[in-house]
């Protein structure tokens, strides 16, 4: 098991804890991580782009000139794709870009990212993260004490004081153990989690 230091909110080391190798010590699978990131971005796409085909543009109902004898190429409509104002060939239509990853693939990607953060010493474990009131300034102080700027904070429960306090800090994002994003874990330099959150993650993924 990987042994990591445990810090308090003042940034002082208060002990150590062992993290399960089944979650925080696996071999990094870059393919699954890449797949999870592509999945996240694809699922966010609206897919609402639209252009009109020749059957959808207005006008062009009348044949512009007779079939033969004019010296022009034959034309059936002024709304054909080669005309200005005509429809588009193979026009894009609204579509769904999302695709599914199975549960084991998602778990493998998450464990790979968490293990990589441990290897790079960019995972910080806190003994607890509790605030008596919603105070952005206090949360910013905690980040400064830990010497962290961009952080992905994983909480064990829905602590609204902590969540609301971090909300106005653009370089910090909070989440709970049940909705950890591989994309966000990669996007932010450091992953911060409490001991309780680490235990919950191990219970689910170990």
UniProtKB/TrEMBL annotation:
Gene Ontology MF terms: rRNA binding; structural constituent of ribosome
Keywords: Ribonucleoprotein, Ribosomal protein, RNA-binding, rRNA-binding
Gene Ontology BP terms: translation
InterPro entries per UniProt: Ribosomal_uL4, Ribosomal_uL4-like, Ribosomal_uL4_dom_sf
Sections of the chain in a coiled coil: none
Region named Disordered: 41-85
One Pfam family per UniProt: Ribosomal_L4
Subunit structure: Part of the 50S ribosomal subunit.
Family from the record: Belongs to the universal ribosomal protein uL4 family.
Name this protein carries in UniProt: Large ribosomal subunit protein uL4
Annotated organism of origin: Candidatus Weimeria bifida
Gene symbol of the encoding locus: rplD
């Amino acid at each position: 098991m990987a042994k990591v230091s445990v810090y308090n909110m003042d940034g002082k080391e208060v002990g150590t804890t062992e993290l399960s190798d089944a979650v925080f010590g696996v071999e990094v699978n870059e393919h699954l991580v890449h797949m999870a990131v592509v999945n996240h971005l694809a699922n966010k796409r609206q897919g609402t782009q639209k252009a009109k085909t020749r059957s959808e543009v207005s006008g062009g109902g009348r044949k512009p000139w007779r079939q033969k004898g004019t010296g022009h190429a034959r034309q059936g409509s002024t709304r054909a794709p080669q005309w200005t104002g005509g429809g588009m060939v193979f026009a894009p239509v609204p579509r769904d870009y999302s695709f599914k990853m199975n549960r084991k693939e998602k778990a493998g990607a998450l464990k790979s990212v968490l293990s990589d953060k441990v290897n790079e010493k960019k995972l910080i474990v806190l003994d607890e993260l509790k605030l008596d009131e919603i105070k952005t300034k206090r949360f910013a102080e905690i980040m400064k004490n830990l010497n962290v700027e961009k952080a992905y904070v994983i909480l064990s429960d829905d602590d609204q004081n902590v969540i609301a306090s971090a909300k106005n800090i653009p370089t910090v994002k909070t989440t709970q153990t049940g909705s950890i994003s591989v994309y966000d874990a990669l996007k932010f330099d450091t992953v911060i989690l409490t001991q309780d959150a680490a235990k919950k993650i191990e219970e689910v993924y170990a």
